[in-house]
């Protein structure tokens, strides 16, 4: 009887340990997902800001090479913005 009780106790402890490990893994995965989402959101926001600045600079008549130098956007990206504005 005592041995059976101890066996049940150890099985329960092992199960609870696995459950805690799963819960910990889920929390860690969620946190990593949130952090990745924030990182991507920041990058998209920066790019959007650069595109808006490039559009404003084109409106002011500034040269594509200068806009590229200031914003860090490629010349082809700026040319594409310029073409999109004219159509």
How do the helices and strands line up, and which of them pair or pack?
Layout: H1 2-59, H2 64-71, H3 75-86
Helix pairs in contact: 1-2, 1-3
Instruction: List the uncertain runs.
Output: none
Describe the main β-sheet briefly: none
Order of helices and strands: HHH
Strand content is under 5%
Shape: rod-shaped
Q: Specify the structural class.
A: mainly alpha
How far apart, in Å, are the first and last alpha carbons? 86 Å
Round the mean pLDDT to the nearest integer and report it: 86
Task: Say how many strands there are.
Answer: 0
Number of contiguous helices: 3
Helical content, roughly?
A: over 70%
Q: What count of domains describes the coordinates?
A: 1
Computed Rg: 28 Å
Description:
The protein has 87 residues and is an all-alpha fold. It has one domain. Helix content is 90%, strand content 0%. It contains three helices and no strands. Helix 1 runs antiparallel to helix 2. The protein starts with a helix and ends with a helix. The model has no long low-confidence stretch (mean pLDDT 86).
Question: What is this entry, summarized?
Answer:
With 87 residues, this protein is mostly helical. The protein is built from 3 helices and no strands.
Feature tags:
single chain; 87 residues; mainly alpha; rod-shaped
